[in-house]
Design brief:
This protein has about 375 residues and is of the alpha/beta class. It has two domains: about 1-250, TIM Barrel, CATH 3.20.20; about 300-370, Arc Repressor Mutant, subunit A, CATH 1.10.10. It has 14 helices and 17 strands. The strands form four sheets. The protein has a nine-stranded mixed beta sheet, with helices on both faces. Strands 12-13-14 form a three-stranded antiparallel beta sheet, with no helix packed on it. The longest helix has 17 residues, at about 30-45. It binds iron/sulfur cluster. Iron/sulfur cluster binds next to loops.
């Protein structure tokens, strides 16, 4: 098999106000036990084969020492055939690195960094509850651009109080460091987060739909004007610098996940590791396996995932996969939301903007067409 590998490092300095990812405050003894459990999981995995991409995400993996990152990569090398030139990414929080660490990371085998600056506006960063400020981001970008020629910058739009000028400023400052890739995410409100409570209590208001559309268009137009390709709903890259790891995921390639809450997709079977971090350590120590759910996907699951994931990208989906929705597709094409070309269907720029609606409509239509009448 040929696969992508995801490693989850579930520690952060503190929880951001909008985040519902699996992470806990950094704690040295727990981190040590976690890394031991992680190494054991890699060592004992029943899977083997060729690996094209490795992505170390979190959480805040840049809290690890470079030697710990290197140890993880070495362990993967012992177990798998990591191909020459494999894309090897580490997520970085600007509040957790310095020049020395960036230089050391560049010698570990990591060849791509993904840095979450989110905004260059101090008020927006405080609102998001980030541990870093805009000076940390500038320094981090300066050091990273010195040691890595391939790095991605994450930004967030749709933050309460954010305006177009502020968003433009964040993008312009980030572009000054010549990232090869930008991910621009709309702020989403997840259940149980401080952001959701502030919203429910009427303490804040999110930008309206028109404002969010204007922000999306600003990001997309500004980056297109600078030569970035809009290759996925939230992702923009210089030619040849799309995130190969994420692209594999969106194209439904196989992947192996290691660590708490990590998922694996192999031979149309999805495995999910326990989310709780101490639970993960305990399961690995006591049973040597942290999988708590194993689902064999049905044909309908597979088709739904293909629609949901592949339509996010500029490659799109093979038209045969969704041919039962031909009438709807005709309407969507008339509305300028999808494009049909050489047997493939993909979203237009307008379709990407309205992707939630378009994808849900296609999914519903396919599902209805698949139901067998009783
Ligand atoms: S740094 Fe990232 S993973 Fe950690 S709490 Fe903030 S958003 Fe979540």
């Amino acid at each position: 098999m040929s696969a992508a590998i995801y490693i989850h490092i579930p520690f952060c300095i503190k929880k951001c106000n909008y985040c519902d990812f699996s992470s806990i405050p950094f704690n040295e003894p727990i981190k040590d036990r976690y890394l031991k459990a992680l190494m054991k999981e890699i060592e004992t995995t029943p899977f083997a084969g060729k690996v094209e991409t490795v992505y170390i995400g979190g959480g805040t993996p840049s809290l690890l020492a470079p030697s710990e990152v290197e140890a993880i990569l070495n362990k993967l090398e012992q177990k798998f055939h990591i191909v020459h030139g494999a894309e090897t990414t580490l997520e970085v929080n600007p509040g957790t690195i310095n020049l020395h660490k960036v230089r050391a990371l560049s010698n570990t085998g990591i060849n791509r960094l993904s840095i979450g600056i989110q905004s260059m506006n101090p008020m927006e960063l405080r609102f998001l509850g980030r541990v870093h400020d805009e000076t940390d981001s500038r320094n981090a970008l300066k050091w990273i651009s010195r040691y890595f020629d391939n790095f991605s910058v994450d930004i967030i739009y749709g933050i309460p109080g954010q305006d177009l000028a502020g968003l433009r400023d964040t993008l312009t400052q980030a572009l000054g460091y010549k990232p090869t890739h930008i991910s621009a995410y709309e702020l989403s409100v997840e259940k149980g987060t401080p952001l959701s409570y502030m919203l429910a209590e009427g303490k804040i208001m999110l930008p309206g739909d028109d404002d969010k559309i204007a922000m999306y268009e600003l990001v997309s137009d500004l980056l297109a004007g600078k030569g970035y390709l809009h290759y996925e709903i939230s992702s923009y890259s210089r030619k040849g610098y799309h995130c190969r790891h994420n692209m594999n995921y969106w194209m439904r390639g196989e992947y192996l996940g290691f660590g708490a809450s990590a998922h694996t997709l192999v031979r149309e079977t999805r495995l999910r590791n326990i989310q709780d971090i101490t639970g993960y350590i305990r399961l690995m120590e006591e049973r040597g396996r942290a999988v708590v759910e194993e689902i064999i996907l049905t044909e309908l699951d597979r088709v739904n995932e293909e629609i949901f994931l592949k339509l996010r990208t500029d490659r799109g989906i093979n038209a045969d996969t969704i041919s039962t929705a031909s009438e709807l597709l005709h309407h969507l094409e008339q509305e300028g939301l999808i494009l049909k070309k050489n047997g493939w269907i993909r979203l237009t720029e307008k379709g990407m903007l309205l992707s939630n609606r378009v994808i849900v409509e296609i999914l519903d239509t396919i599902e209805k067409a698949t139901v067998i009448p009783v």
